[in-house]
Amino acid sequence: MTRFSIRGEHFSLAQTFTISRGAKTTAAVVVVELSRDGCIGRGECVPYPRYNESVAGTIGALESLRPQVEAGLDRAALQRALPPGAARNALDCALWDLKAKLSGRPAYELAGLAAPRPVATAYTLSLDDPEVMGRAAAQHADRPLLKIKLAGRDDLDRVAAIRANAPDSTLIVDANEGWSPAQVEPLSVALADLGVALIEQPLPAAQDALLADLEHPIPFCADESCHTATDLAELASRYECVNLKLDKTGGFSEGLRLAAEAHTRGLDLMVGCMIATSLAMAPAILLAQQARFVDLDGPLLLQKDREHGLRYEGSLLHPPQTQLWG
Fold first, then answer.
1. Active-site residue 248, yes or no?
2. Mean pLDDT over residues 175-184, rounded?
3. Per-residue model confidence as pLDDT tens digits over 120-141
4. Catalytic, out of 147, 245, 248, 304
């Protein structure tokens, strides 16, 4: 029999983190633990209000599966039992971790992947006034990749201030659905002149069909519009890149499928995250091996990470220890 534990946890952020939809000072996560034969498998997720998720709702969805989990629910059955989202992610990743611990084989090997190597991650600059963001960029000018949160108004001033203070960093911008259709083409042209390499989710997901007809010298990356592999057929005419987040795919299992489908369709891949601890990042590192852009800086934004956290050397992110996951 499998023992099934679910709990909510909160981690304070190092500073207030702001995007176009609002600000936060803590990361609220849900942790799943599965115990069997002396081994423990763990997974972590971030319930996201943008997708009508909450900590209480996520815990409730997981509790509804307690009889099946304790009776030995496997990953294939889980894909049918829960929809894509945070709840399925935590349980799916815990099942992968438990299988790795029980078998004595690393998760990457079980998934048919090569051994992971360190990857360079983006560092995210929270939305603020241009002057404040420029000062933040100066503090992180040695990082090779900076991700900039934008909102529409004053965005060119923000990026110009960042470029002036981080002249050698590659810049990617994330509008978090905050632009209007009329802003897309002029902002794309102006941001290209500032050396921006990627624009993430410029329009609300419900409007992104418009992107197929809008000129953009910078590639677009789908985030809020991209959840699972089945989304890619529609997105391929609108975007050149997709952001794979395990909290959207509903776990590592669907993440593998989405990554493979993106490759088949010729889409670039970003592997991203919500703000969470190293436990949430660890499975994503295996998928990040094949990504053009990696955005797994969640633990860097916390006051304190959990025990056995990932090792960051500047922006270089190392694969997890087995004590953490996999």
1. no
2. 95
3. 999 999 999 999 999 999 999 9
4. 245
User: What SS3 state is found at 109?
Assistant: helix
Q: Mind listing the domains of the chain with CATH numbers?
A: 3-110 (3.30.390.10), 119-317 (3.20.20.120)
> How far is Cα 259 from Cα 81, in angstroms, rounded to an integer?
22
Q: How many helices (H) and strands (E) does the chain have?
A: 12, 14
209 in Cβ contact with 52 (< 8 Å): no
- Taking a C-beta distance cutoff of 8 angstroms, is the pair 194, 159 a contact? yes
Q: What angle do CA 66, 73, 34 make, to 5 degrees?
A: 65
Q: Under a CB-based contact definition with an 8 Å cutoff, are residues 93 and 44 in contact?
A: yes
Token pair, residue 280, equals 């949430």
The torsion angles phi and psi of 243, rounded to 5 degrees, stand at -100, 110
Catalytic residue among 99, 147, 149, 248: 149
In degrees and rounded to multiples of 5, residue 161 shows phi and psi of -65, -40
**CA 272 to CA 48: how far, in whole Å?**
14
Q: Tell me, yes or no, if 99 is annotated catalytic.
A: no
Contact by Cβ (8 Å): 47, 53: yes
DSSP per-residue letters across 37-50: TTEEEEEEE---GG
Element (H, E) at 5: strand 3-19
Residue with tokens 């990696």: 294
Q: Which of 98, 22, 75, 53 is nearest to 257 (CA)?
A: 75
| 51 membership: H or E segment, kind and range | none
**pLDDT above 90 (res 22):** no
Amino acid at 62: L
For residue 249, what are its two tokens? 């795919």
pTM above 0.70? Answer: yes
| Calpha distance 197→204 (Å, rounded) | 21
Q: Are 46 and 13 in contact (CB under 8 A)?
A: no
Q: Cβ(201)–Cβ(177) under 8 Å?
A: yes
The dihedral formed by the CA atoms of 295, 222, 30 and 14, expressed in degrees to the nearest 10: 40
Joined tokens for residue 52: 């009508």
